[in-house]
Every structure is written in C-alpha cells, then in structure tokens.
Amino acid sequence: MNVVIYPDPILLKKTTPVAGVDTELQTRIREMFDLMYELKGVGLAAPQVGQSIRLFVLNPTGNPEHERVLINPRILKRRDRIRGDEGCLSFPGIYIEVERSRFIEVEARNEKFEPVRFEARDFEARIIQHELDHLDNVLLVHRMSETDRMRLRSALRELEDKYNQPVG
After folding, report:
1. CA distance 137 to 28
2. Active site residue 107
3. How far, in Å, CA of 136 to CA of 74, rounded?
4. Residue 57: beta bridge partners?
5. Would 150 be classed as within a structural domain?
6. What CATH number has the domain bearing residue 24?
7. 64: cis peptide before it, omega within 30°?
8. How many CA atoms lie within 13 A of 55 on its CB side?
9. Are strands 43-45 and 95-109 parallel, antiparallel or unpaired?
10. Candidates 86, 124, 131, 158; catalytic one
11. pLDDT tens, residue order, the chain (168 aa)
12. Residue 3 lies in a domain
C-alpha cells in the first residue's frame, strides 16, 4: 500500500459508501494506520491509497488508544471558524493555511460498522474536516488562495512533472 500523490486522478474519483466491514476491509484499515504512522501523518483517507470508498483513519496524538476509524462520515453541526496550517500526505512538503470549523459534530460508522456520534474540536476537528474533504474530492490545491498558488507554483509543477514521467 502506498500513498497516491497529486495529481493522480484517483484523488478526484467519486467515492462510494461502504456497505459493511469484512476481514479484507479490516486488514486494509490496519494497513492504512501503519502507512499513516510510517509517514508521520495524523489522518489518511481511502482515496489516498487508491480506494474510492468513504472511509478514513486518524489519530491526532499518535497514541494507539486514540485511533479512530470513520466510515461513511457526515458532519452534522459546525461552530466557530479558525485558520490553521495544513499539510497532506498526497502533497508532500506543501503546507497552506486553511479555515475550518473549530467544533464539529460527526456521525459515522466505526471499524465494527457500529454507528457513532461525537463532537470533535480544534486539531481533531481539523483532521476530520481535511480527511472528509478527500472523500468529497476536495484537495489541498482546491483550498489554496491565489497567493498560495503563486508561492507553491514550482512545488506543484514538480509533483505534476513527477506524476507525468514515463515509468521504467
């Protein structure tokens, strides 16, 4: 399993809801956590590993007891806006300031496909909103201001050139 890097079109493929959890999906979820930790990330969405399904994993602290799997997530409520820096494993080395809701209420299914509903705030809320963007085909490049695009033009072009290089 590898992280898909921008501008791979899989990142913009419509995601489909997950109908249930089986051993194959449980294995994929564990692999996603392992890859996320290996790359020092705090969240990883299924489209980022080439799977166009509505699922992501996150861990805001790195402590195994804070691992969270969100399947078919929805944000029910949002409150208070705050700006903060964000990076993305699909945009290595690129960071921008993004405005997000500081408090959110989320409804989803967990790794056992049980319904969960909870509130998240601050960093955890930011991660959830970022990963949910991936499920909705909204990428870091879509959140960039015109100034960001100008400042990061060469870095984005480098990712595009690397993607377009012939294999072999």
Report:
1. 21
2. no
3. 11
4. 44, 69
5. yes
6. 3.90.45.10
7. no
8. 25
9. unpaired
10. 131
11. 999 999 999 999 999 999 999 999 999 999 999 999 999 999 999 999 999 999 999 999 999 999 999 999 999 999 999 999 999 999 999 999 999 999 999 999 999 999 999 999 999 999 999 999 999 999 999 999 999 999 999 999 999 999 888 766
12. no
Q: What is the pLDDT of residue 167?
A: 66
C-beta separation of 95 from 85 below 8 A:
yes
Q: What is the dihedral of CA 62, 67, 71, 73, to 10 degrees?
A: -70
Which domain, by its residues, includes 91?
9-164
User: Could you give the residue ranges of the DSSP H alpha helices within 39-165?
Assistant: 122-135, 146-151, 153-164
Partners of residue 144 on adjacent β-strands:
none
Q: Which residues have a Cβ under 8 Å from the Cβ of 85 and sit 6 or more positions away?
A: 95, 96, 97, 98
Judge whether 116 lies within some domain: yes
Task: Tell me the β-bridge partners of 68.
Answer: 58
3-class DSSP state of 51: coil
Place of tokens 């700006």: 83
Q: Are 56 and 70 in contact (CB under 8 A)?
A: yes
Domain count, the chain: 1
Retrieve residue 143's tokens: 């959140």
Structure tokens that stand for 65 in this block? 């007891």
Alpha carbon distance 118, 107 (integer Å): 7
Assess if residue 101 is contained within a domain.
yes
